[in-house]
Protein backbone atom coordinates (compact mmCIF):
# COMPACT_ATOMS: atom_id res chain seq x y z
CA UNK A 1 0.00 0.00 0.00
CA UNK A 2 1.02 3.56 -0.57
CA UNK A 3 2.29 5.16 2.57
CA UNK A 4 1.09 8.54 3.73
CA UNK A 5 2.80 10.97 1.43
CA UNK A 6 6.05 12.62 2.36
CA UNK A 7 7.23 14.77 -0.50
CA UNK A 8 10.75 15.89 -1.03
CA UNK A 9 10.83 19.15 -2.81
CA UNK A 10 12.38 21.30 -5.45
CA UNK A 11 15.62 20.33 -7.12
CA UNK A 12 17.29 23.45 -8.45
CA UNK A 13 18.70 24.01 -11.93
CA UNK A 14 21.21 26.77 -12.64
CA UNK A 15 20.47 28.83 -15.73
CA UNK A 16 23.47 31.16 -15.59
CA UNK A 17 25.23 31.18 -18.98
CA UNK A 18 27.97 33.70 -18.20
CA UNK A 19 30.98 31.73 -19.42
CA UNK A 20 32.93 31.18 -22.64
CA UNK A 21 30.82 31.20 -25.76
CA UNK A 22 31.55 27.67 -26.94
CA UNK A 23 31.01 26.16 -23.50
CA UNK A 24 27.91 28.31 -23.22
CA UNK A 25 26.54 26.81 -26.41
CA UNK A 26 26.97 23.27 -25.09
CA UNK A 27 25.47 24.22 -21.76
CA UNK A 28 22.51 25.84 -23.52
CA UNK A 29 22.01 22.69 -25.60
CA UNK A 30 22.11 20.68 -22.39
CA UNK A 31 19.53 22.91 -20.75
CA UNK A 32 17.25 22.61 -23.78
CA UNK A 33 17.56 18.83 -23.75
CA UNK A 34 16.93 18.67 -20.01
CA UNK A 35 13.83 20.82 -20.52
CA UNK A 36 12.55 18.23 -23.01
CA UNK A 37 13.45 15.37 -20.58
CA UNK A 38 16.37 14.13 -22.70
CA UNK A 39 18.67 13.88 -19.70
CA UNK A 40 21.18 11.52 -21.30
CA UNK A 41 21.60 13.93 -24.19
CA UNK A 42 21.87 16.80 -21.74
CA UNK A 43 24.68 15.04 -19.88
CA UNK A 44 26.59 14.56 -23.13
CA UNK A 45 26.41 18.32 -23.75
CA UNK A 46 27.42 19.18 -20.19
CA UNK A 47 30.37 16.78 -20.53
CA UNK A 48 31.52 18.77 -23.54
CA UNK A 49 31.07 22.08 -21.73
CA UNK A 50 33.18 20.76 -18.84
CA UNK A 51 35.82 19.47 -21.25
CA UNK A 52 36.09 22.99 -22.68
CA UNK A 53 35.98 24.68 -19.25
CA UNK A 54 36.91 22.32 -16.38
CA UNK A 55 36.21 25.02 -13.78
CA UNK A 56 32.67 25.73 -14.95
CA UNK A 57 30.68 25.23 -11.76
CA UNK A 58 27.35 25.74 -13.53
CA UNK A 59 27.99 22.88 -15.98
CA UNK A 60 28.75 20.53 -13.09
CA UNK A 61 25.64 21.81 -11.33
CA UNK A 62 23.40 21.19 -14.32
CA UNK A 63 24.95 17.80 -15.00
CA UNK A 64 24.23 16.87 -11.39
CA UNK A 65 20.62 17.84 -11.94
CA UNK A 66 20.39 15.61 -15.03
CA UNK A 67 21.98 12.71 -13.18
CA UNK A 68 19.48 13.16 -10.37
CA UNK A 69 16.61 12.95 -12.84
CA UNK A 70 18.06 9.64 -14.08
CA UNK A 71 18.31 8.48 -10.43
CA UNK A 72 22.10 8.32 -10.61
CA UNK A 73 22.35 9.70 -7.11
CA UNK A 74 25.98 8.72 -6.59
CA UNK A 75 26.89 10.56 -9.78
CA UNK A 76 24.80 13.51 -8.62
CA UNK A 77 26.81 13.70 -5.41
CA UNK A 78 30.11 13.61 -7.31
CA UNK A 79 29.06 16.59 -9.42
CA UNK A 80 27.84 18.61 -6.46
CA UNK A 81 31.06 17.84 -4.60
CA UNK A 82 32.81 19.57 -7.51
CA UNK A 83 30.39 22.50 -7.48
CA UNK A 84 31.05 23.01 -3.77
CA UNK A 85 34.81 22.77 -4.32
CA UNK A 86 34.55 25.52 -6.97
CA UNK A 87 31.84 27.56 -5.22
CA UNK A 88 31.80 26.85 -1.46
CA UNK A 89 28.97 29.29 -0.76
CA UNK A 90 26.50 27.74 -3.20
CA UNK A 91 23.50 26.94 -1.00
CA UNK A 92 21.64 25.24 -3.85
CA UNK A 93 24.53 22.80 -4.35
CA UNK A 94 24.38 21.73 -0.70
CA UNK A 95 20.61 21.44 -0.98
CA UNK A 96 20.73 19.26 -4.09
CA UNK A 97 23.51 17.10 -2.68
CA UNK A 98 21.41 16.65 0.44
CA UNK A 99 18.51 15.51 -1.70
CA UNK A 100 20.69 12.87 -3.39
CA UNK A 101 22.04 11.68 -0.04
CA UNK A 102 18.50 11.35 1.26
CA UNK A 103 17.58 9.21 -1.73
CA UNK A 104 20.54 6.94 -0.89
CA UNK A 105 19.28 6.80 2.72
CA UNK A 106 22.32 8.67 4.02
CA UNK A 107 20.08 10.64 6.33
CA UNK A 108 22.85 12.02 8.53
CA UNK A 109 24.76 13.25 5.50
CA UNK A 110 21.61 14.78 4.02
CA UNK A 111 20.87 16.68 7.24
CA UNK A 112 24.44 18.01 7.34
CA UNK A 113 23.99 19.37 3.81
CA UNK A 114 20.59 20.89 4.55
CA UNK A 115 22.09 22.48 7.67
CA UNK A 116 24.78 24.09 5.51
CA UNK A 117 22.26 25.28 2.93
CA UNK A 118 20.26 26.93 5.73
CA UNK A 119 23.43 28.44 7.24
CA UNK A 120 24.19 30.03 3.86
CA UNK A 121 20.56 31.03 3.23
CA UNK A 122 18.50 31.26 6.44
CA UNK A 123 15.30 31.82 4.44
CA UNK A 124 15.73 28.71 2.28
CA UNK A 125 12.23 27.36 2.79
CA UNK A 126 12.67 24.14 0.81
CA UNK A 127 15.79 23.28 2.80
CA UNK A 128 13.75 23.38 6.02
CA UNK A 129 11.06 21.27 4.37
CA UNK A 130 13.48 18.67 3.01
CA UNK A 131 15.38 18.54 6.29
CA UNK A 132 12.07 17.83 7.99
CA UNK A 133 11.34 15.01 5.53
CA UNK A 134 14.77 13.49 6.17
CA UNK A 135 14.26 13.74 9.92
CA UNK A 136 10.97 11.89 9.60
CA UNK A 137 12.75 9.18 7.60
CA UNK A 138 15.33 8.86 10.36
CA UNK A 139 12.65 8.74 13.08
CA UNK A 140 13.17 12.22 14.54
CA UNK A 141 9.56 13.38 14.46
CA UNK A 142 9.97 15.98 17.20
CA UNK A 143 12.43 18.20 15.38
CA UNK A 144 10.93 17.38 11.97
CA UNK A 145 7.77 19.19 12.99
CA UNK A 146 9.88 22.21 13.95
CA UNK A 147 11.28 22.29 10.41
CA UNK A 148 7.85 22.03 8.81
CA UNK A 149 6.59 24.84 11.04
CA UNK A 150 9.58 26.95 9.99
CA UNK A 151 8.78 26.27 6.34
CA UNK A 152 5.22 27.46 6.98
CA UNK A 153 6.51 30.55 8.77
CA UNK A 154 8.55 31.42 5.68
CA UNK A 155 5.83 30.36 3.24
CA UNK A 156 2.35 30.33 4.81
CA UNK A 157 0.82 28.65 1.73
CA UNK A 158 3.15 25.64 1.79
CA UNK A 159 0.50 22.91 1.56
CA UNK A 160 2.94 20.01 1.69
CA UNK A 161 4.36 21.25 4.99
CA UNK A 162 0.89 21.19 6.55
CA UNK A 163 0.34 17.73 5.08
CA UNK A 164 3.57 16.43 6.58
CA UNK A 165 2.66 17.85 9.98
CA UNK A 166 -0.58 15.92 9.53
CA UNK A 167 1.49 12.80 8.88
CA UNK A 168 3.40 13.29 12.13
CA UNK A 169 0.23 13.95 14.12
CA UNK A 170 -1.34 10.83 12.63
CA UNK A 171 1.65 8.70 13.62
CA UNK A 172 1.44 10.15 17.11
CA UNK A 173 -2.24 9.07 17.13
CA UNK A 174 -3.33 12.71 17.39
CA UNK A 175 -6.02 12.20 14.78
CA UNK A 176 -7.75 15.52 15.45
CA UNK A 177 -4.48 17.35 15.01
CA UNK A 178 -3.80 15.41 11.83
CA UNK A 179 -7.21 16.36 10.42
CA UNK A 180 -6.67 20.05 11.22
CA UNK A 181 -3.43 20.05 9.25
CA UNK A 182 -4.86 18.08 6.33
CA UNK A 183 -7.78 20.54 6.27
CA UNK A 184 -5.30 23.37 5.86
CA UNK A 185 -3.36 21.54 3.15
CA UNK A 186 -6.60 20.99 1.23
CA UNK A 187 -7.67 24.59 1.73
CA UNK A 188 -4.39 25.69 0.15
CA UNK A 189 -4.44 23.02 -2.58
CA UNK A 190 -7.97 21.73 -3.29
CA UNK A 191 -6.60 19.24 -5.84
CA UNK A 192 -4.24 17.56 -3.38
CA UNK A 193 -5.41 13.94 -3.71
CA UNK A 194 -3.00 12.55 -1.13
CA UNK A 195 -4.18 15.05 1.47
CA UNK A 196 -7.76 13.83 1.03
CA UNK A 197 -6.61 10.21 1.24
CA UNK A 198 -4.54 10.83 4.36
CA UNK A 199 -7.32 12.85 5.98
CA UNK A 200 -9.58 9.89 5.26
CA UNK A 201 -7.18 7.63 7.14
CA UNK A 202 -7.24 10.01 10.11
CA UNK A 203 -11.02 10.25 10.06
CA UNK A 204 -11.37 6.48 9.83
CA UNK A 205 -8.95 6.04 12.73
CA UNK A 206 -11.03 8.46 14.80
CA UNK A 207 -14.20 6.51 14.03
CA UNK A 208 -15.82 8.79 11.44
CA UNK A 209 -16.22 6.18 8.72
CA UNK A 210 -18.65 8.06 6.47
CA UNK A 211 -16.44 11.14 6.41
CA UNK A 212 -13.47 8.91 5.63
CA UNK A 213 -15.36 7.40 2.69
CA UNK A 214 -16.14 10.90 1.42
CA UNK A 215 -12.43 11.72 1.48
CA UNK A 216 -11.52 8.50 -0.33
CA UNK A 217 -14.18 9.38 -2.91
CA UNK A 218 -12.57 12.77 -3.45
CA UNK A 219 -9.09 11.29 -3.72
CA UNK A 220 -10.39 8.92 -6.42
CA UNK A 221 -12.17 11.76 -8.22
CA UNK A 222 -8.86 13.66 -8.37
CA UNK A 223 -6.78 10.58 -9.19
CA UNK A 224 -8.84 7.79 -10.80
CA UNK A 225 -5.83 5.44 -10.60
CA UNK A 226 -5.43 5.82 -6.84
CA UNK A 227 -5.44 2.11 -5.93
CA UNK A 228 -5.00 2.62 -2.19
CA UNK A 229 -8.02 4.91 -2.07
CA UNK A 230 -10.19 2.27 -3.73
CA UNK A 231 -8.88 -0.36 -1.33
CA UNK A 232 -9.41 1.73 1.79
CA UNK A 233 -12.85 2.84 0.60
CA UNK A 234 -13.84 -0.78 0.08
CA UNK A 235 -12.72 -1.72 3.57
CA UNK A 236 -14.50 1.29 5.06
CA UNK A 237 -17.75 0.46 3.29
CA UNK A 238 -17.50 -3.14 4.44
CA UNK A 239 -16.90 -2.12 8.05
CA UNK A 240 -19.82 0.32 7.97
CA UNK A 241 -22.22 -2.35 6.77
Give an account of the 3D structure.
Helix 5 runs antiparallel to helix 6 (107-120). The model is unreliable at 1-9 (pLDDT under 50). The longest helix is centred in the first third of the chain and has 15 residues, at 21-35. Helix content is 74%, strand content 0%. By secondary structure, the protein is mainly α.
Mean pLDDT: 92
For the biggest sheet, the summary is:
none
How does the helix and strand content classify structurally?
A: mainly alpha
Strand runs, count:
0
Sequence-ordered SSE layout with sheet pairings:
Blueprint: H1 21-35, H2 39-52, H3 57-69, H4 73-86, H5 91-103, H6 107-120, H7 125-137, H8 141-154, H9 159-171, H10 175-188, H11 193-205, H12 209-222, H13 227-240
Helix pairs in contact: 1-2, 1-3, 2-3, 3-4, 4-5, 5-6, 6-7, 7-8, 8-9, 9-10, 9-11, 10-11, 11-12, 12-13
Amino acid sequence: MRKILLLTSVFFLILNLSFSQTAAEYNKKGLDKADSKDFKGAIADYNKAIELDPDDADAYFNRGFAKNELKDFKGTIVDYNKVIELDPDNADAYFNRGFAKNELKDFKGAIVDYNKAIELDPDFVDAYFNRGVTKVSSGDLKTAIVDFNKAIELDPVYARAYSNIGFIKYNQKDFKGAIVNYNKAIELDPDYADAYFNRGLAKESSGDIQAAIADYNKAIELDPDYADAYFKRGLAKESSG
